[in-house]
Design goal:
heterodimer, A: alpha+beta, six-stranded antiparallel β-sheet, six-stranded mixed β-sheet, about 25% helix, B: PmbA/TldD fold, 2 domains, seven-stranded mixed β-sheet
Chain lengths: ~450, ~475
């Protein structure tokens, strides 16, 4: 494999020859492993070793971009040539902005040598995760253990050069007992056998919930959303805070102004690249700008979109350290904790649900934030503070404004979740929503 | 490349694998992005590498590298086999010992464009996309066009697959795609949004077939009507006529996905879920005589086109539901071994970083014999839903929800007032038992279908005719 500095020298030299003096190069080298299991058995183990490259270049306000996997000098030159060729064919872009001055440096504490150097040891803990779910009462369990080591190196024509190493581990399990199921997930830069076992334990416990099954009529109910559900919903919310999606007409923030109150004052959503325990931690973005933790929503007030240099210039806003050469993106998400226990939240529910998990969140209208999502796994009906029954697969069909304007309480305990339906690692408490709309199909 | 792949397969066997497969997989793409008639940028992509898959004592192990050099590929093989060996000592009894036997092919095929994708200069393509904004803006009557974003892509996929059973397939498939996002705004009635995906296999003749200008004109005019004049749907149970776009999505979600055999067994249980079909057998009733759903990878020009799958098994049409009964599952060789059947050529992998798993290709409801006018002519009060935005289905593929976008009241056999955000929620058997009549024309729609871990978005078409359903309650999204 070719080294990042060798790629930089090739690309910079080619661009110099072609008279292109504004460029960014991002090189990602990653080695990772994933084991999938189902019905208590390993179904596949997967291993990846790759080096990918992203190149951005600008000339006379024209911009072009390419990305791909490279393994040789020819691959790198070919990609640089493609970018240069594109530049010669396009007109000036309304998104063009000069590259920002470098300000970032690598974040420390993002590498766990146990993950980087002893991958076989990490893989060998997988049976413990499965066994823990079975010990908690589950009959069968499915899930994934994934871990890896990545070095992301950014070079810019402004002189920035930085390498952010990180390790990461993602584990999630879905446990079944009869027709009931439970689910849990965890994500971190660090290996922790206790947390890994906890994934199986919590999934198994929810699967073993011993309550009768009941049909509850559709309607408006209180809802305790687990960190899995909150993670899923705020993933979409945070993506919508990317300024490019606002420009492209795919964001509820398109109708809002920073400073506007949009949600409950109990709700604060932070983009947290500097939390070194969360898997996407980084000290600098893809333009070499220093990352910083910043609220997207603070106590219900919309604070900022996420920007790279292009969207910031276009929208006359400050840089936020979220480049994305083309699209600004969130790093890690943190929901500010509350002061309650989960038991207290349950006691506060007169008539409602504890929603453990959801999937398939889809928008009817991104601008209006109209969505529905399907609950899965344990959906516990609560009456007068007491769990009464298990229900099956209701939907939450509402708007983001409604749901997050009605945050009544949050737990003090938070959980770092990362799985198939929570793509951006999210640390969240359980959240009590005063009122949400639940629907169900006709039989 | 052949020699390196051949060496990889032989090396895996020498190291003890009972099955080995090596795939060179290349995707070269170009993307043009415009917003409101302005070019935002051009992006190119190259994904090129080798995927290895081996079986050792029932453990399936996959390894991939983007370096196509012999030493890197050999290292990937060694890691794949060593990981399988390590886990075989830790793991419980594996679900299958070997892949199902299969008749594997040795062939080369290519989709040959009538008009190659590179035969039109980039600046002409940019002009074509920019013109859409002018057409869309001038099609608004009561509303204003807030956003029209268009992402146009061209991808050429090249693969060489070898396996230890003698399979050898080389293929090349070019695919143009487009994604359009339309946002209309009305001063009093808010916004309405439509997302459209287009795709096929071939060259610029596919793009020409989209008739982009007339399509965008029709879409914007319809959305303008719905946003400015849309009413709530009738509250009483009414017959519903679904347009082919909605029908295609329904059969993809409620027939194709639940009949993926790996899902039924539980391999995707922690991700995309399981299937109601685990409680059923082949031959069980799921609907009435109109419920025939076919998955066919061999449809020329289709987005999900292939002739051999990624395990070198020949592709063929599969009747998933046949006249209301569950007829055939979607298999790769791993799931076929679980069910003790032959693979039906449905193993697909998105790229060199992906394992081949059972996937749909082009899935559609078989047509009937009605013209559209005949479907609605005897409806006194009903609803026609032509397109949708929001939809979802539960993790067993049973209860599902579709929210209409372009929709109309049917009054005395004719289309009448536009309807805003009608909601249909039903179960899989209630849909397939409610079909009263079907149109004669099948239309197809493109999508990237998601499944797998890591997720693999794979090109598919879904489609069908317009259909008339029995009376049902229609809700409204607010």
């Amino acid at each position: 494999m070719i080294e990042p500095r060798g790629i930089r020298d090739l690309v910079a030299s080619r661009f110099r020859d072609l008279g292109i003096d504004e460029w960014v190069l991002v090189v990602r080298s990653r080695e990772s492993t994933m084991a999938k299991f189902a019905n208590n058995a390993i179904t596949v183990v997967q291993y990846w070793n790759s080096t990918s490259v992203e190149i951005y270049a600008a000339r006379d306000s024209r911009i072009a971009h390419a990305q791909g996997f490279v393994s040789s000098a020819d691959d790198c030159l070919s990609m640089a040539n493609r970018v240069a060729e594109s530049l010669s064919k396009v007109e000036p872009s309304p998104l063009y902005a000069p590259l920002p001055e470098p300000s970032g440096k690598p974040l420390q504490g993002t590498v766990d040598p146990r993950i980087r150097d002893r991958s076989d040891d990490v893989l060998s803990t997988l049976p413990q995760l499965i066994d823990e779910a079975l010990r908690s009462g589950a009959e069968r369990v499915a899930g994934t253990l994934e871990f890896g080591y990545e070095e992301r190196t950014v070079y810019t024509s402004k002189g920035f050069e930085g390498t952010q190493p990180r390790t990461y581990l993602k584990a999630y399990a879905r446990a079944f007992k009869g027709e009931n199921s439970g689910h849990w997930a965890w994500g971190s830069t660090r290996f922790d056998e206790h947390r890994l076992a906890e994934v199986g334990h919590i999934a198994g416990e929810f699967a073993s919930t011993n309550l009768p099954v009941a049909n509850v009529e559709p309607g408006e109910y209180q809802a305790i959303l687990s960190p899995l559900v909150v993670g899923n919903l705020v993933n979409t919310m945070a993506l919508m805070s990317s300024a490019l999606l606002v420009l492209m007409g795919a964001s509820m923030f398109a109708k809002l102004e920073p400073g506007q109150r949009v949600f409950s004052e109990n709700f604060t959503l932070v983009d947290a690249p500097l939390d070194s325990s969360l898997p996407n931690a980084s000290g600098f973005d893809d333009e070499g700008v220093a990352c910083r933790n910043k609220p997207i929503v603070k106590r219900g007030v919309f604070k900022t979109l996420l920007h790279n240099s292009k969207t910031a210039k276009r929208m006359n806003a400050a840089l936020t350290g979220n480049a994305g050469l083309f699209m600004p993106t969130p790093w890690n998400l943190v929901i500010e904790a509350g002061s309650d226990s989960l038991d207290n939240l349950i006691k506060d529910v007169k008539r409602g649900f504890l929603v453990l998990n959801n999937w398939y969140t889809r928008m009817q209208n991104w601008i209006e934030g109209m969505f529905s999502t399907v609950t899965r796994d344990a959906l516990i009906y609560i009456e007068n503070g007491e769990p009464k029954a298990l229900c099956r697969r209701l939907r939450i069909a509402d708007t983001y404004r409604n749901v997050f304007s009605r945050v009544a309480a949050l737990t003090k305990d938070t959980y770092s979740v990362w799985w198939w339906e929570v793509d951006i690692p999210t640390r969240s408490p359980y959240i009590l929503i005063e009122r949400a709309r639940f629907t169900r199909p006709e039989a | 490349m052949f020699d390196i792949l051949d060496r990889a397969v032989n090396l895996a066997r020498e190291l003890g694998a009972s099955y080995a497969e090596a795939r060179y997989h290349e995707l070269v793409s170009t993307q043009i992005m415009t917003r409101n008639g302005q070019l935002l940028g051009i992006s190119g992509g190259v994904q090129r590498g080798v995927a290895i898959r081996v079986m050792y004592r029932g453990i399936l192990s996959f390894a991939s590298t983007n370096s196509c050099e012999r030493s890197s590929v050999e290292k990937a093989v060694e890691i794949a086999v060593s990981r399988a060996k390590a886990l075989s000592s830790l793991a419980r009894e594996p679900p299958v010992k070997e892949l199902a036997p299969a008749r594997v092919g040795r062939a080369r095929y290519a989709v040959v464009p009538e008009k190659p994708l590179d035969s039109m200069p980039v600046d002409e393509k940019i002009s074509m996309l920019k013109e859409l904004f002018r057409v869309a803006s001038s099609s608004c009557r009561e509303c204003k066009l807030a956003t029209l974003s268009v992402v146009y892509s061209e991808t050429i996929e090249r693969k060489i697959v070898l396996n230890s059973d003698g399979g050898y397939i080389e293929s090349e498939v070019p695919r143009p795609t487009a994604m359009l996002n339309i946002v209309l705004v009305h001063p009093q009635r808010g916004t309405l949004q439509r997302m459209i995906e287009l795709g096929g296999s071939g060259g610029l003749e596919i793009v020409r077939g989209w008739a982009l200008e007339s399509m965008i004109r029709n879409e914007v005019e319809a959305l303008d009507r719905v946003l400015s004049k849309g009413i709530e749907p009738p509250k009483e149970p009414i017959p519903v006529v679904l347009g082919s776009e909605v029908v295609g999505l329904i059969v993809h979600e409620s027939c194709g996905h639940p009949l993926e055999a790996d899902r039924i067994w539980g391999r995707e249980a922690a991700q995309a879920g399981e299937s109601f079909a685990k409680r059923h057998r082949i031959g069980d009733t799921i609907g009435n005589e109109h419920a025939t759903v076919i998955d066919d990878p061999t449809i020329p020009k289709s987005f999900g086109f292939y002739l051999y799958d990624d395990e070198c098994v020949a592709a063929r049409p599969k009747y998933l539901y046949r006249e209301g009964r569950i007829n055939e599952l979607i298999h790769n060789r791993w799931s076929a071994a679980l069910y003790n059947v032959e693979s039906n050529g449905s193993a697909r992998a998105r790229d060199f970083r992906s394992e081949p798993i059972p996937r749909m290709s082009n899935t559609y409801l078989a047509p009937g014999d009605h013209r559209f006018e005949e479907l609605i002519e005897d409806i006194k009060l009903g609803l026609y839903v032509k397109s949708y935005m929001e939809w979802n289905i539960d993790d067993e593929r049973w209860g599902q929800r579709y929210v209409g976008l372009e929709a109309y009241v049917i009054r005395n056999g004719e289309l009448a007032e536009p309807v805003l955000n009608p909601v249909l929620e039903f179960t899989t058997p209630s849909f397939y038992s409610s079909i009263e009549a079907k149109g004669r024309e099948v239309r197809f729609y493109a999508a990237l279908c998601g499944k797998g871990e890591p997720p693999q978005g794979i090109p598919v078409w879904f489609g069908g005719p317009d259909v008339r359903l029995k009376k049902m309650v229609v809700g409204v999204a607010r």
